[in-house]
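Why predict the complex rather than its parts? Because the way molecules touch one another can change local conformation, and only a joint prediction can capture that. The input here totals 671 residues.
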Amino acid sequence: MSPSIAQRIAALRREIERHDYQYHVLGDPLISDQEYDALYRQLDELERSHPEYADDDSPTRRVAHGLLPGFTSVKHSAPMLSLDNTYSLEELEEFDARVRKPLGVEQVSYAVEPKVDGVAVHLRYEGGRFVQGLTRGDGEKGDDITANLRTIRSVPLRLRGRKTPELVEVRGEVYMEAKRFEEMNRRREKDGDKPFMNARNTTSGTLKTLDTAVVARRPLQIFVYQLVRAEDHGAATHLEALELAASWGLRVNPENARVEGFAALRALCLRWATLREQLPYATDGLVIKVDSLRDQRRLGLTAKSPRWGIAYKFGSTEAETTLRSIELQVGRTGVVTPVAMLEPVMLLGTVVGRATLHNFDELERKDIRERDRVVVEKGGDVIPKVVRVVSGGGRRGPRFPIPTKCPVCGGPLTRDPEEAAIRCENLYCPAQVRRRIVYYASRGALDIEGLGGKTVDALIDEGLLEDPADLYDMTVEQLMPVERMGEKSASNLVAAIAKSKEAPLERLLVALGVRHVGASVARLLAEEFRSLPAIAEADAEALQQVPGIGPEIAASVAAFFGSREGRALVRRLRERGVEGRPPTRRRRAEHGPFAGKSFVLTGTLSIPREEASRLIVDAGGKVVSSVSKKTDAVIAGEVAGSKLEKARSLGVPVWDEARFRKTLDEAGVGA
Ligand code: IVH
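Output of the joint prediction:
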């Protein structure tokens, strides 16, 4: 007996649905496009000549006829929230801590998913049939865009499998692949239509189109990323829930992965920074979710977003902007550097308005001029830099002249042939004075609370301050009239300054700002000579006898204490009782946990470099500036650059900040 018309129609629909699933959901077609078209045509003809067997869920009915009357607004069965963003691994670690604390666990299982850059939608299936699709809208109510979503081949009109639940609600992202978006644009240009600007906006516009025939021609796809009320379907974890959804024929991103604990999460995030480029669609980050549904419930929601999930945004490390002007900056040692003042631009989650131009050689080599469009980058250093000019025709300003006079004191500038640096030799140049004092009081040096750049500026303006020794002469009465200084902050500041007299000698040595004398060298000098006058009197040869101090450092130290200015400063400090407390336990650090070990710091840590160096030195270690095979570990903060690469290539161990702190904690060396 030949099959009835009804049976033939049903068989063709099943066959076409199967091929739609293979092609659009699994991405694994079993037949050619021509074979598929032939099946489709057969079904279409049969349905046309036998309208009595019409069915809205037939694959031929994805496109409704005529224009939609408009969209109705529908209340969501549960609010459609969004996620908070993080822009750094540090912030992500804070998220991990926020999750672990209430759960009282050491380690959390996370689902990590690409954050597909598209439009969020909600799909509702009743009795296995797709009955309603909504936009996110305001989160409470969304637009009913069912007819448009039906045109998307990876949205099944019927769920697969015999025993699908009576009610299934899922959420996901509708998007366009980059290649298909470009293909569509090429077709449009050929047809004389204007190309679209970007895939995400086109997706969003398309879903709000009233003509479903138009929607059907756009290359939309979906990934389902959430099963609503997943526990009702027997899932214990989020990824299990997505597996269930996949078993019903819904399209789930194959890149989704599970990781255990923060270290693994961090490693995966770092891998994705490059992996993302291989994806056929745009992602602007990763979505990280606590995998256990029970833990998700325990963590709950805030008004805006769940506590169990977060978006980790890939920082664009480069951004384009306009260089408003080039300003000159005079550093602590008199080096004059060009600084780019930028039209503010977002970079890795912060607004960047200034960037370094390094030195005049570089400025010339890159031919950077005022008013240029430039690319700025945040690399291994904290400070953003201008990497290049975006060439784009138009008239450019003149080349920036290499200065011959100090922009602050007007004194002559000399060129240091070895350093590509241009230097103001006037030690009393107000810019240098200011920076020296700020440095003297900074956290890595004498750590005088309440004495930041603004206060120093005000005190210099008042004529109260010319060098660090003047700090010790200031009285509350003198300070009070200074801008924004009440009696309380004035007496606090006087007390903080007085307290700095008791600081350890090595800190005082750092504070003097001698070239090449950081925490490591200062510790060596303090331990060897044990008093400020002893160090001041040592000549280069004696200094070089100290293990770890080479000729360059020795020469610099000797030159500082031999100079008129250096001697005067030391004398004036000593007259005011500032001598530096000699180390109590001699060479204690030799027995520290880092004894005999050398470290390189790179990238941004949550504490200033000087502070990190001091911790290392306190633990008996040494901080060196470049990575070699002899380096014991590289401590890498955020956005670490070439030193990190070098460490990897040499097989030198790399510690993140957490590991560094843990090691110190265990050794009892605290910040
Ligand atoms: S989960 C409670 N997972 O990113 C919010 N969102 O603000 C649950 N997105 O609105 C969202 N890929 O449009 C989730 N794998 C993914 C996602 C994803 C893209 C979008 C979504 C959401 C926004 C986050």
